[in-house]
Amino acid sequence: MGKRKRVTLTPKESARGGKQEAKVYPGTYKKRGVEYPCYFVRGWKVDGKWQRRQFNEQSKAEEFAAQVNVNLKSESAKRYLVNTTMSEEQVRQAEEMCRMLGSTYTMPEVLDYFLKHNRAPSFTIDILEGMDIYLIEKEHAGVRAVTLRKPRGVIESFSRFANRPAVHTVTKESVVAYLKTLRANDGVSPAKRKTWNNHRNELASFFKWAGERDLSTNRPWTFQNPVEDVLRYSNELVAEERPQITITGVETTRELMSYAMSYKGGKMAKFFALIYFAGIRPDPATGEIGKVQEINLDNGRIAVPPVAAKTKSERPVNIMDNLRPWLELYADKPIIPPNCKNDAAHIRHKFGLGQDETRHSFISYHVALHRSLAYTALQAGNSEGMIKKHYLTFPTHAEGEQFFSIVPDMATGEAAFAEMKFEDNQTLRVI
Predict the structure, then answer these.
(1) For residues 322 and 404, is the Cβ–Cβ distance under 8 A?
(2) Is 4 among the domain residues?
(3) Is the C-alpha dihedral spanning 112, 118, 121, 122 positive or negative?
(4) pLDDT tens digits, residue range 108-135?
(5) How many domains does the chain divide into?
(6) Is 394 found in the same domain as 350?
């Protein structure tokens, strides 16, 4: 066999640097031992590499070369002479990045986002370990254990959704995706805006704390708060979904208290008397009712301890004249009897009580009776503004008198309306 010769179709110098221009060169190729004529188009680069295309027809090769040259001229018109320390490869990568980003994002925006979410702090920690430290600090700062249940529940729920991420890797997108999974009590409808805000705010507080500098906990654990730009619904939009304030009618209250007297030996009568006629927050687990220890009939006051009161200080509640006989008659009954939660739920269901209806009733009838938001606010442990916004309806003064005259009648075994004289407080009035 003869020695194979190398055939150069174009001069070397045209294939190394110089001006790019696609040109057509005649050539041949072999297929199954037969040599066929062809046409090569050469002389331009893509991604820094010289290109070559082969055609069987000269006309098609020339048409392709013409199109390449048009594109080269168009690209050349866009180029600028820039003095840079970057290598040719770095410049090419920068150009490609700009092409991919288009007009949606700038390179600094993309770089900033990447560094925030991919540059790990010198100390990293997963979200549940961070939560434990966060809650311990809040507890040391005086936050009640019952209050800490809410942030714990929210952070644990988010952690399950996001597969227990490291704190610094959490993004705005993952927080929004989590919030969109929240559901109402029916398990199907989206959660209300208030629920969205509550979960959003708990996560925002945690990540804000995680981003603060603190050597004792090796913080910051993250360089940005991923919740900062997440939607927070306005108070007006939240109010649109707030359920209507409902109170128990006077006659219905009397019927309910009669039923409580006969239900399982009157075990729930004291409980409902306290939540209706003293306005004690009724949840046995998280409310005030489970923390009340002192009922002093001698001085006529119920002491709501600091651990239960939202003000974090003891709140004395005056014992209304109609409440006293309930407390005297059922003095031997515990405030929270065995199986209280289920028994209370039974009575609530039987009389169709809504959420917080007992407390709404106490506050509304108390204001109607005493004509004073300020006095009722002291008794209920709320601000006047909170009462106006969340609790108050407007029963008549006469209905207020009727409500606070419901007493136990042992002769009939039912609740009854007693003849009572109420002092009409003329110094404190509703504003």
Answers:
(1) yes
(2) no
(3) negative
(4) 888 777 766 666 777 899 999 999 999 9
(5) 4
(6) yes
